[in-house]
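Box 3.1 A note on notation
Throughout this textbook, protein chains are presented in two layers. The first layer is the amino acid sequence; the second is a token string describing backbone geometry. Keep the layers aligned when reading.
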Amino acid sequence: MLQTIEGIYRNGQIELSETPESISQAKVIVTFVEVQTVNGEQKSGLTAFDVAPDLLGKHDFGTGDLATNKEHLQGLGRD
């Protein structure tokens, strides 16, 4: 089972924001993300843009908005 939990590394220790569910022992992989600050205060939460702004808009793939495809919506909810 794979779980992702946010935490803070401070003074040589990792403080998790919550307790992992149903895990008594597991291997962990730690990725350090630089803490963003505004006027000396920590910003709450990072966005994908904060971490990798150079990647934003680089790729145009994946499923488009199916709500704009009238054929896809035809008969929806009429079972």
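The chain has two helices and four strands. The first helix runs from residue 48 to 51.
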